[in-house]
Task: inverse folding
């Protein structure tokens, strides 16, 4: 059973701090990694994806991937109250089936003013 | 630009009643279309996906069905709802098949009583 694990939180950080969200996965053949942001009662929104080991930066967001450790993380610099949301990690090893995109249950982030 | 709409946004249905959720995409042709369900305490679960008109792949055996009568229209149906069908139903689209780069609709929250 392929699994994607996230700490459910809530992760509470003060405004302006760095929020670090972590995700581990069980399938060593995973190829693609995604981070979605989901505000309460709303649908998920794709914010980052990463396909290669290392870091990928986009504005205040940095995705980090370590395939050897089966670990992917999302860093949010200068956190803002508007970043308060649940962050979903998704991991894919397609193998010819969309069903091989597995979502974690999400980590709830709370940024305190 | 591309947009996706789904409706209804909220519905409360008795056990055993039928269900129809509809989703349409605008601004693109030949989109890949998906139905996901997000139940309380669980990750996003892929229900159906479609890479073209009349082509439906089912990922989870259940009492739900999907149809794609037009290129940019995707419908989720049930003849008889179960209590376990309650959840947040999300339609999504993507440019490519087998991708985690998904764009979700606003979602339909279903409560089965």
Result:
């Amino acid at each position: 059973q392929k699994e994607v694990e996230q700490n459910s939180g809530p992760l509470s950080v003060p405004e302006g701090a760095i929020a670090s969200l972590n995700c581990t996965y069980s399938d060593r053949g995973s190829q693609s990694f995604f981070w979605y942001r989901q505000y309460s009662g709303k649908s998920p929104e794709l914010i980052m994806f990463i396909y290669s080991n290392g870091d990928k930066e986009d504005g205040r967001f940095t995705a980090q991937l370590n395939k050897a450790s089966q670990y992917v993380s999302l860093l949010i610099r200068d956190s803002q109250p508007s970043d308060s949301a649940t962050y979903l990690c998704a991991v894919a090893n397609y193998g010819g089936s969309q069903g091989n995109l597995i979502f974690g249950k999400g980590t709830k982030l709370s940024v305190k003013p | 630009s591309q947009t996706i709409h789904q409706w209804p946004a909220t519905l409360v249905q008795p056990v055993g009643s039928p269900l129809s959720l509809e989703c349409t995409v605008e601004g693109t042709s030949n989109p890949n279309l998906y139905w996901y369900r997000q139940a309380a305490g669980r990750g996003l679960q892929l229900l159906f996906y479609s890479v073209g008109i009349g082509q439906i792949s089912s990922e989870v055996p259940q009492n739900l069905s999907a149809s794609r009568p037009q290129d940019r229209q995707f419908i989720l149906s049930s003849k008889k709802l179960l209590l376990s069908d309650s959840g947040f139903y999300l339609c999504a689209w993507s440019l490519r098949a087998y991708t985690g780069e998904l764009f979700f609709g606003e979602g339909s929250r279903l409560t089965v009583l």
